[in-house]
Amino acid sequence: MKQPRNYPKVASDMFFLQGTWASGFLGVMLIVQIIKMITSYFNGNEVNTFFTATFIASNIFMLVIGIISAVGFIPHYVSNGITRKDYFKGTIIGTIGLALVLPIISAVITGAIQLVINLFNLLINLESFENPLHEADNHIVADIITSVIFTPYIELSSNWIAAILVFAINIFTYYVVGWLIGAAFSRFGVIVGLLFIILGFIVVQVEDILLSISLGLNVPGFVDEIEIPIVISIVAILLILSICLWLIRQLTKRMIVKF
Which residues cross the membrane (predicted)? Predict the structure, then answer.
């Protein structure tokens, strides 16, 4: 008898559960943004837009919930009769949805904030965000460290579709890396887990560089002369993410689950 497909249910569960966490994350970010804008109003300081602030902070947020996904959810689903395959497929689908919704909500909130500022003529200085990689002295170590901090970013006001897509690709990559690291720690322990942290770092850096080169954004000095069409970069990123997801599948399908 063929087993029913449970991954759509897993996908909706993961989307809404992680979406609840994302709502809390956005709520905290909004409170911080309001405090910064009040300070800007009275002191004249420049402040990043909500979209920019969320873009910067969401990388760590998605990395953390990716790790939680690997460690915390498999026992729950397996104990309730859900196969590891359905858990895997459902998590991917649910997370893709979250990776798209989070930047869209951030963009809407940013637009609403800008509308209020314009409507009441508030003297709040919203600054543009620029990746300062080219300001480094072409020192490879400095370039690498700076590229970790500043990931590819497009201003919402310049091209909102591209801005949202870059945001989504970036945070989905961080989620997959977190999921991979968490699965490695759960399956093999600390030593191998540390090696997968290095692998995750490499994946993030390659994704950042590919996007930055193709979009004409600032890049580390050691790849400054390279040109890659956007189609090639997207295909390469999808291939890298597919390999990471394949590794996650291999790590989780034989993982010992303790109830």
Answer: 21-42, 54-78, 90-117, 160-181, 188-206, 226-248
